Amino acid sequence: KTLCDVILMVQERKIPAHRVVLAAASHFFNLMFTTNMLESKSFEVELKDAEPDIIEQLVEFAYTARISVNSNNVQSLLDAANQYQIEPVKKMCVDFLKEQVDASNCLGISVLAECLDCPELKATADDFIHQHFTEVYKTDEFLQLDVKRVTHLLNQDTLTVRAEDQVYDAAVRWLKYDEPNRQPFMVDILAKVRFPLISKNFLSKTVQAEPLIQDNPECLKMVISKLP
């Protein structure tokens, strides 16, 4: 590139560019170069916590309006496009991820979408989670959810399940995955299960016989209090 008037410093890499091109493609750079920020007068601009390859792809997009989004770079591209406010790239990444949502990744995509303020992507992921909950709760992603997210999920009225015993099964699987650390949350988690909707046979043979519940007096009392 000739007559470049800015160098983006990304780790050890120097990426030459033109301010006007970056400003046209990115609201972030537009503000940087048209206000009284220190970088507006600097020939070299350091981008901290950025990936050189990703920044190069975004700079190339600023010149060509073309970029390749794939499973290897989509998360990094979406993060960077969000940070540097390059809306067309953000939309491409969102559209790509919407097509990739499945039982194994929908929870992670929902969390990512929430963190990066992508409501359309979050809605797609959440709809999938609710409609395919019986598959989703058997994945590693579900077992690794934090207590706040799993409590919120189990509390939803829109979960598609054959019967409420599947919600109970999901709660127990999550608790047992890290029982020593999750024991303090046992009552709150199991309180999200609608025990009156569970068959008496399942309640007597499975729920009341569960060691996790039998060994916790408070939990056992709570379960019994919810029995029909």
TrEMBL record:
<keyword id="KW-0880">Kelch repeat</keyword>
<dbReference type="InterPro" id="IPR011333">
    <property type="entry name" value="SKP1/BTB/POZ_sf"/>
</dbReference>
<feature type="domain" description="BTB">
    <location>
        <begin position="4"/>
        <end position="71"/>
    </location>
</feature>
<dbReference type="InterPro" id="IPR000210">
    <property type="entry name" value="BTB/POZ_dom"/>
</dbReference>
<dbReference type="Pfam" id="PF00651">
    <property type="entry name" value="BTB"/>
</dbReference>
<keyword id="KW-0677">Repeat</keyword>
<protein>
    <recommendedName>
        <fullName>BTB domain-containing protein</fullName>
    </recommendedName>
</protein>
<dbReference type="Pfam" id="PF07707">
    <property type="entry name" value="BACK"/>
</dbReference>
<dbReference type="InterPro" id="IPR011705">
    <property type="entry name" value="BACK"/>
</dbReference>
